[in-house]
Amino acid sequence: MNKDSSEHALEFLLDFNGRIHRLKRGYWLKFEIKRVAATAARPHGLSYSFTLHAPSGQRLVGFDNAHEVRSRGSRFKPRSTGSDHWHRTASDPGRPYEFAGVEKMLDDFFGEVERVLQEHGVGTEVIAVDDQGDKR
Predict the structure, then answer these.
(1) How many Å apart are CA 5 and CA 86, to the nearest integer?
(2) pLDDT (tens digit, 9 = 90+) per residue, 40-70?
(3) How far apart are CA 63 and CA 58, in angstroms?
(4) Residue 84's closest CA among 97, 103, 69?
């Protein structure tokens, strides 16, 4: 994907900030994304949180960069320098995520959303959209 199309995808996604997509049976998706100053923890200059929630409000899946997480496995494994990570389950404290662009992250997020919704017997059809948007 070229730089222009990547920037277009990012601009499109930035318009989703504050948006909640309601799904059947009370499940919902929340999108938060803003441009920030690039830092070691956020070298791409984005602060984001994409989450799938159960009807109770419990987070079931999440991709975000709100805090650093430890690598899993050997203590000798190199630590990630960024704070990009994802939560595969409600109880997962997070695992490092290699941010390779907005499009890839969205593909990965929606792949996990589909997996979890399928486990819960819920489809991916959006039945309502709340735009609480604090735009950029």
Answers:
(1) 25
(2) 888 889 999 999 999 999 999 999 988 766 6
(3) 14
(4) 97
